[in-house]
UniProtKB/TrEMBL annotation:
Belongs to the NAD(P)-dependent epimerase/dehydratase family. Residues 5-238 form the NAD-dependent epimerase/dehydratase domain. SUPFAM superfamilies: NAD(P)-binding Rossmann-fold domains (SSF51735). This is Epimerase. Pathway: Bacterial outer membrane biogenesis; LPS O-antigen biosynthesis. Pfam families: Epimerase. It comes from Oceanospirillum multiglobuliferum. InterPro entries: Epimerase_deHydtase, NAD(P)-bd_dom_sf.
Length: 317
C-alpha cells in the first residue's frame, strides 16, 4: 500500500479521512498544529507531527516520504477570517502555496488534493451553483480559497505539480466541535437540542444551504487522488438538495422526538443568504454522487453520540 500526508488530520474532516486511509491499509502522516484539531480525533495508527503548515523544512521532510498529500489544514471560519485577517491568510493561502512549492521542489512532484470552499461564490443568486458560476467571494476566507485555486493553476502550469481542488459546501458529521463559535450550524443545533436548550437562528430561517455528510466528502477526497492533474481541476462537493435553516431545525426535532424554543436574531454580517451547489460535473467525473441525504446524515451523526444514541433508540421503541 502507499503512504500519504494529511494536513489538518486531527480536525473534523481530516480525522475521518485518516480513518478511511488506514482502513484501506495505507500509512498516514499527519501535520496539525492542534489549534482546532483534537488528539482524540486522530486514529492511533497515524503518525502525528505537531507543527505549522508554513514550516518549510518540516513540510519538505514529510512530503518527501509520501506519494500524495491531502491538504485540509485551514482556519475554516468566515467569522475568524474577519477577526484575524492576516493570521488566517497565512494559514489558508500562504500555507497552501508552501505545500505546492514543496511538492515542486521534489524529484517527482507529489499530487496535492486540497480543500477549497463554496465561499468562493459569495452571495451569487444564480442557483444552483456550478463550477462555471461567477465567483465573487465576500470574505477574506472566500478570497483566500479562490486564490488557492489560482495558485494551483500556477503550480500545474509552471511547476508541473498535479492538483485537484474540491469546493466544499456545508459539511457536517461526527467530530464537529459544537462548543466552538465557528462550528457548523448542524453541530451547534444538534448539541443544544440534545440538551433541551433553545437554538438561535440568525435571520428568518429561510436561508438555503446544501448540507453534505462528511463520509461522502471523504469518499470523493479518496477518489480525487487518482484524478489530480497539472490542469488543476476543481469540483463542487455538494448534494444539489436545498435545505432551509428552519427546515434543518424541524428535521432535528423530528428525529429526536421533541422541540425546543427557536430564538430569532439579526442576520450576521457576511452571511450568505442562499447556497446550493450543482454536483453534475462531480458525478460525471467520478461516476458517483453523494449517498447521504440530510436526514440519514443527521441520524448517523446523532447515533455516534452515546447519550443521543440511547435517546433515539428509546424513541424508536
Amino acid at each position: 500500500m502507499a503512504k500519504y500526508l494529511v494536513t489538518g488530520g486531527c480536525g473534523f474532516i481530516g480525522s475521518h479521512l485518516c480513518d478511511a486511509l488506514i482502513h484501506q491499509g495505507h500509512d498516514v502522516l499527519v501535520l496539525d498544529n492542534l489549534s482546532t484539531g483534537k488528539l482524540e480525533n486522530l486514529n492511533p495508527s497515524a503518525q502525528l507531527y505537531v507543527g505549522d503548515i508554513n514550516d518549510k523544512m518540516l513540510t519538505k521532510m514529510l512530503m518527501s516520504q509520501v506519494v500524495g498529500c491531502f491538504h485540509l489544514a485551514a482556519i475554516a471560519s468566515v467569522v475568524r477570517s474577519n477577526e484575524a485577517w492576516g493570521e488566517t491568510h497565512m494559514t489558508n493561502q500562504s500555507g497552501t502555496i508552501n505545500l505546492f512549492e514543496t511538492s515542486a521542489g521534489l524529484v517527482k512532484p507529489v499530487p496535492v488534493i486540497y480543500a477549497s470552499s463554496a465561499a468562493v461564490y459569495g452571495d451569487n443568486a444564480a442557483m444552483p451553483l456550478t463550477e462555471r458560476s461567477v465567483v465573487r467571494p465576500l470574505t477574506a476566507y472566500g478570497v483566500d480559497k479562490l486564490a488557492c485555486e489560482l495558485q494551483a493553476q500556477v503550480a500545474g502550469r509552471i511547476h508541473k505539480v498535479p492538483t485537484l481542488g474540491f469546493r466544499f459546501f456545508n459539511v457536517f458529521g461526527p467530530r464537529q466541535d459544537p462548543s466552538s463559535p465557528y462550528s457548523g450550524v448542524i453541530s451547534i443545533f444538534s448539541n443544544r437540542v440534545a440538551q433541551h436548550q433553545n437554538i438561535t437562528i440568525y435571520g428568518d430561517g429561510s436561508q438555503i444551504r446544501d448540507f453534505v455528510y462528511v463520509q461522502d466528502v471523504v469518499r470523493f477526497l479518496l477518489l480525487g487522488m487518482q484524478q489530480a492533474d497539472i490542469k488543476a481541476p476543481v469540483f463542487n462537493i455538494c448534494t444539489g438538495k436545498a435545505s432551509s435553516i428552519k427546515g434543518l431545525a424541524q428535521t432535528l426535532f423530528s428525529i429526536l422526538g421533541y422541540e425546543v424554543e427557536i430564538i430569532y436574531a439579526a442576520k450576521k454580517a457576511g452571511d450568505i443568504q442562499h447556497s446550493l451547489g450543482d454536483p453534475s460535473r462531480l458525478v460525471q467525473q467520478f461516476q458517483s454522487c453523494a449517498e447521504y441525504d440530510l436526514g440519514q446524515g443527521l441520524l448517523e451523526m446523532l447515533q455516534s453520540s452515546h447519550a443521543l444514541s440511547h435517546h433515539i433508540y428509546q424513541q424508536a421503541v
